[in-house]
Amino acid sequence: MDDAGTLHHLIPGKTAGRILILLLALVATAVQAEPLRVLTQNMNRFFDDVDNGNKEKVLSRKRFRQRVDAAARKFGDHFELPHVIALQEVENLNVLTQIAAEIRDRYDARYRPVLIPGQDPSGINLGYLLRHGVEIRKVDQLFAKRTYGDDGHSLFSRPPLYLEACYLERCLSLLNLHLRSMRGIDSDSDGKRVRRKRLAQAETIAGWSNRLQQSSPPVSLLILGDLNALTPSDEHVDVAGIIRGNPDNTKVRLKGRDLVQPDLVDLTRMIAPKKRYSFIFRRRKQQLDYMLVNQAFAADVELIAFSPIDRRFSDHAGLLAWFSW
User: Fold this and answer.
1) Furthest-apart CA pair in the chain: how many Å?
2) Of 9, 28, 206, 267, which residue is most buried, by most CB within 10 angstroms?
3) pLDDT tens across the length of the chain (325 residues)
4) Are 284 and 313 in contact (CB under 8 A)?
5) In 10 A of CB 191, how many CB atoms?
6) Side-chain half-sphere CA neighbours of 265 within 13 A
7) Residue 178, exposed/middle/buried by CB under 10 A (0-12, 13-18, 19+)?
């Protein structure tokens, strides 16, 4: 006998109906109260086993399947299948499709892959894996044609990947970033270009987020990914501070403009200082990966944590946040 039949058997007529409606309402409330879980993860140059003729790295079939299996297990066993997974350093849609298929087979969970190729010369891109139930409203690659300097080179080799997504009738605006690294920043020949490009990228993102806040005040905004930026800043330019809206110009050579009003909130400040790192460079723990939100959305965060760095999977820690939803 089903639940409704049981209720009507034990409790007469209208009373049973009212109880059933109440139970259904309680179940619906419980579902809606499930925290939204968002992960950002640098995948450490995740290429596939297909030669596309672009001079990209090509893995062996065995190695590619090993990496796909490791990624699926990491997202399932360790991160427990987040609703939104923002990824950096993946080659193409095939990589994400294969990971999604492995997750489906192993955990009976469905993910939709999203990726738009950029112009990184080594062939790495930004992407998302979105769990079933997350509705895509909009996907857009920002500033793909924005140039920098007199040589006409792209400002962003890996253009920011914007996503509007809804889950349980609430919507979220995400911007997935993988900004210019600090490689060559002290070089006599290339350092000036690297430093000024990092400044231009940070101010471009800051200006964009400020315009979004001003045009859509109720928006829930989450900027996440590998900013390749230190906190406290390096001596050249405070990339993370500029994007937050509170650049520290006291010790840097290139001063950044304050373009964000109100400032964004750096959720990683909620993590204990000893655990607040996502990369190890020459035995020094550094934070390169972030989640920044607008102030209205900051009230919804429940928990945030970096995972341990597992070099069998990636050279970066994952950053996972729970939001009340």
Assistant:
1) 86
2) 206
3) 444 444 344 445 556 556 555 555 555 544 556 899 999 999 999 999 999 888 899 999 999 999 999 999 999 999 999 999 999 999 999 999 999 999 999 999 999 999 999 999 999 999 999 999 999 999 999 999 999 987 889 999 999 999 999 999 999 999 999 999 999 999 999 999 999 999 999 999 999 999 999 998 889 999 999 999 999 999 999 999 999 999 999 999 999 999 999 999 999 999 999 999 999 999 999 999 999 999 999 999 999 999 999 999 999 999 999 999 8
4) no
5) 13
6) 13
7) buried
**Two tokens at 23?**
């139970």
Dist CA 220 CA 267 (whole Å): 14
Cis peptide, bond prior to residue 308, ω within 30 of zero: no
Please report where in the chains the tokens 């065995």 appear, as a residue: 62
Identify the structural domains of the chain with CATH numbers, from first to last.
Answer: 1-33 (no CATH), 34-323 (3.60.10.10)
Tell me 307's DSSP state. Answer: P
Lookup result for tokens 């800051």: 206
**What count of residues does the chain have?**
325
Q: Which amino acid is at 10?
A: L
Q: What DSSP assignment string belongs to 135-184?
A: EEEEEEETTTT-EETTTTEES-SS--EEEEEEETTEEEEEEEEE---STT
Measured distance CA(325)–CA(238) in Å, rounded: 33
Report the distance separating Cα 157 and Cα 178, nearest Å.
9
